[in-house]
Amino acid sequence: MKKIYLDYAATTPCDPEVLAAMEPYFFEKFGNASSLYALGQEAKAAVENVRSALASFLGASPDEIVFTSGGSESDNQAIKGVADALEKKGNHIITTAIEHHAISEPCKFLEKYGFKVTVVGVDQYGRVAPEDIKKAITDKTILISVMHANNEIGTIQPIAKIGSIAREKGIYFHTDAVQTVGHIPVNVNELNVDLLSLSAHKFYGPKGVGALYIRKGTRVDTFLHGGDQEKGRRASTHNTPGIVGLGKAIELCAKNMAEESKVQIVLRDKLIKEIPAAISEVRLNGHSSERLPNNVNFSIKYIEGESMLLNLDMLGIACSTGSACTSSSLEPSHVLLAIGLPAEIAHGSLRITIGRWTTQEEIGYLLDNLPKVVAKLRAMSPLYEKK
Ligand SMILES: *Cc1c(COP(=O)(O)O)cnc(C)c1O
């Protein structure tokens, strides 16, 4: 059976060049980057090379990069670290209704300790209005966190504008750039951010490694206490193979990103045009132009997302849905609810995310099969019969 992976926003396969770069650091170069003898110093040099390369990719300087275990840790570190460092200055945090749980859950956690969180809404395309952020600011606001692009609907936020508002008011600004780094240009100065999260497995690197950019002078308390790795900002023996993999993945993205995104936009736009032509009563979620090059998200009426997913899986196609009927929460995606979809429409959503190895043929196979799956499920749907 064909195996067609169309869920690159969930994770990406490791590029073979990334794996090849990592391999020596499991074997002959396995040293602890904190050890003083040559084997350790060799590992340290590798880590520092990646730190410099990543910094220059982001427009940052090397000492502004802290390596972490991935996007979730970077997000937690940013939110809780700033809250901890600035609790005497204020207790108010501003975020949005469409953030990843790695942002919204740390915010909820802080509410238990007396922090107040304002959750700013979005428009029907998933865009945050910078004006709304501005209105939410109080004299107690210490941090604003708005994601660069949304992982479900692909909407890209006006980060630079929000950043300049934050800077004017002297408030720290964090962005979760896990979906954008390696996919579209990300420069910490152009975006006016003080903190930025990224994760290697979303751009063809290994899982379990990422970084947090922390602008010089930004006060962030340590979250993982222990040894003095990362200049005391994050304890734990360096994940040298992982960091080397992240570095190789960034190098490949720097080289190929512009070309790759052009190819992806063609495939994306083909889906955006042809799915509504082949299936009745579908709605595109997200923004028409301020959108990730690799993201397509549709709500398909009278369909339950998870049954659609399982039927596509039987055909060898892997994609994603905002419905969660079989998981512990029955709630549909908070992102789809935030853009104003009624729950029953949100339950029928399908996210297709393409990547480095997606082909025309794969998109063709999906376009051949999706209408059949939808027709089959609608034939069994009492809601569809009644209409
Ligand atoms: C995947 C993702 C995360 C979590 O990153 P991990 O490295 O898997 O912990 C956070 N935010 C966004 C927007 C993501 O897409």
Brief characterization of the structure:
With 387 residues, this protein is an alpha/beta fold. It has helices at residues 16-22, 38-58, 71-86, 101-111, 130-136, 159-168, 240-278, 305-314, 334-338, 343-346, 360-380, 382-386; strands at 4-5, 65-68, 92-96, 116-120, 141-145, 172-176, 195-199, 210-214, 282-284, 295-300, 317-318, 349-353.
Structure description:
- The structure is a single chain.
- The relative contact order is 0.16.
- The protein has two domains: 4-11 and 257-385, Aspartate Aminotransferase, domain 1; 16-252, Aspartate Aminotransferase, domain 2.
- The chain has helices at residues 16-22, 38-58, 71-86, 101-111, 130-136, 159-168, 240-278, 305-314, 334-338, 343-346, 360-380, 382-386, and strands at residues 4-5, 65-68, 92-96, 116-120, 141-145, 172-176, 195-199, 210-214, 282-284, 295-300, 317-318, 349-353.
- The chain is α/β, with parallel strands linked by helices.
- The model has no long low-confidence stretch (mean pLDDT 96).
- Helix 3 (71-86) packs parallel to helix 4.
- The chain starts with a strand and ends with a helix.
- It contains twelve helices and twelve strands.
- The strands form three sheets. The protein has a seven-stranded mixed sheet with strand order 2-8-7-6-5-3-4, sandwiched between helices. Strands 9-10-12 form a three-stranded antiparallel sheet. A two-stranded parallel ribbon has the order 1-11.
- The protein binds pyridoxal-5'-phosphate.
- Pyridoxal-5'-phosphate (PLP) is lined by residues 70-72, 75, 100, 102, 147, 151, 176, 178-179, 199, 201-202, 210.
